[in-house]
Amino acid sequence: MASRTTTEQAFQAIVIDDEGRVCADIPESACQQEPGNFFKHVGALALTKSADGLVDPKLVLSWLMTALGAPVALIGLLVPVREAGALLPQLVTAGYLRTLPRRKWAWAAGSVVQGLAAAGIGIIAISLTGAAAGWAIVLALAVLALARSVCSVCYKDVLGKTIDRSRRGTATGLAGSIASVTVIVYALALSFQLVDRMLLVTGGLFLAGAAWLLSGLLFATLKERKGATDGGKNALKEAGRNFTYLRDDPQLVRFILTRGLLTATALAPPFMIAVGSQAGEGYDRLGFLVLASALASLLSSFVWGRLSDRSSRKVLVFSALVAAIILAATSWLAFAGALAGGYIMPVLLFGLMIAYQGVRLGRATHLVDMADTDTRAAYTALSNTVIGILLLAGGLFSLVASWFGGAVVLALMAGMSGLAIVAAWGLDEVQQ
Q: Is pTM beyond 0.70 here?
């Protein structure tokens, strides 16, 4: 009883702004269990977000494959495999996952599989080299991505059933801030080479595996009520049916358009580093990018999460505005040849990562709150599938960069972010 009282007090201190607590869209039974569930969500997410930082395909794994002598063509597959593998299968798998009355078990299983895949990459790193290591890492990453896709479909539904709408962004934002501390320590070690870098990267992979395993075990202890299971027996038929939501719900179309335009915040960092390197900056990509991303998460995740609980629409608008300003400034400075020296690139990249965190938290909270229990899983799967296709198409930016330069790509991405401001402005205030 004492621990429950302590949990209630901690929960109230973090999320309650007034006297008393009211749950708007979860039943009374779930409301009574919300304090314990809140901290389980925070703990599980903090572990998985920490693991994500330790196994970052575009940073950590690309460096690892280079160090192991893997072919460049295989290194180029890392980000597409990770993004497409995590997003594209969701439209099909969502139908089956809807047959599960309690989807926490699927999320927990997906987390465990991700942990095993991360540990597998660690074993590959100490036992293979060259093309064999490259192919093995790509395959393990594909398994990790597929498991992640299951977690992605299930999470928003479980979150919607266990945490009230006014506190969901707070839970995810707090988890992001906690996880960022782990990643900052890791990034500092990489930057200053406190330990042999190969040993540090390999150890980080095993640590990430352990974090995912613990996260799965913790998530399995959530108190989740049974949910709707109809309409999910035929996965392919359900996938086709999901596309009708694009016809019937214009707000969903606008949300996907906004999210698609804001993929610029995820695609831009490598091009920013490229134009910075051409200007003579010569940053250590691995340590610097991980550190910039982690610091941005630490300083902004909780704030973005709290703001998302009040208006995820405004969070998306503000994030798009920040991204447009940062990307336009970077492009202009690149054209002017003014990127060399000082702290210009660190500040610009940090600013973009602030916007990126806002996009992540704003879109996640908006999607959960705009949908209901019956449509949440389908909306999530449909949105993620469309974005997965767009991210694959984002590979065309590499061709544009090779023809016209990275500064032109950044200018195009600034334009995308500017259009996202207009798109997000027309979204409904779903928190009301």
A: yes
